[in-house]
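User: I'll paste a sequence; please echo it back and then give the predicted structure.

Assistant: Echoing your sequence first, then the prediction.
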Amino acid sequence: MRFNRFVLLPLALLALGALPACSNDDDNDDDSKSDAGTGTDAGTGTDAGTGVDAGTADSGTYTFPDAGADPGVSPTATCPTGAIICESFDKGTNGWTPAKENATIDIVGGRLHVLTENGHDEKVSPGQAIARWMKNIPNFGTQLFVRAHVFLTSLPGDLGQMGTFFVLFSDKNTDFGGIELQVIKDKGFALDDWSAQTGQGWNRQPPGATPNMSAGRWVCLEWEVRRASASDAHGEVSVYVDGALAHKFSAASDQAIGMRPFNTFMVGYGFVHPQGPSGSEAWIDNVAVSSTARIGCQ
């Protein structure tokens, strides 16, 4: 288990604050953000709240249109009805708590911009190179769906370090623990489970499997977290790329994922365990979190 000490410093701040209101506004999309793709849905499921889960009743296909290779022009997206979080980064910090170590995180042009510093290697000295925004959410029950548009200028430079996008964790003393979605140098996705439940650990998408992560273009990342009941200690996690399933970290296999009543969500990028090149640049936009249904890319 990789214990994520990065989450410890801001916990006191989170404990003091009330649950922030979500920014689920009809005008949530920044008017200055032009559509970097074609502006049309290349698939069949444009409803942001329903009908895009290829693993349920919708048997059709859903394709994320080419969103372009300009980090300064992000895709457009809608907010699902009843979203817990719907963030287009046009309202300042908007109830989020920034946290960083050997990195910067700012809003630039209506997008979240993360730069991590080069020259940090935990094999030489302790330290991370990561920055994230975090926000309280209602306690995790049985399902949670995350969507973000992400642009990486490069993939991690060493197979020993993983770049983290999303984190779910519980900050309660009696129920502390979390999980996080990562990317590896070879484009594969990984799931770091530090929930402290039996069977926890680190596992990854099989080498060579597709779809996987890309650098140099906008990617629609969806993260799906499920368990059978709100009291189950294990569940499963899926990651989708541009609407297609990349990998399912399944409780039915040796990749059982520990679950807690997660009450905090983080989004950002960087390396909890930097090894080798630790410099990176990431752009993030159109973050949405829902407990109702898969959100979709648009």
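The domain at 5-18+51-65+74-290 is CATH 2.60.120.200 (Jelly Rolls). Confidence is low (pLDDT under 50) at residues 1-61.
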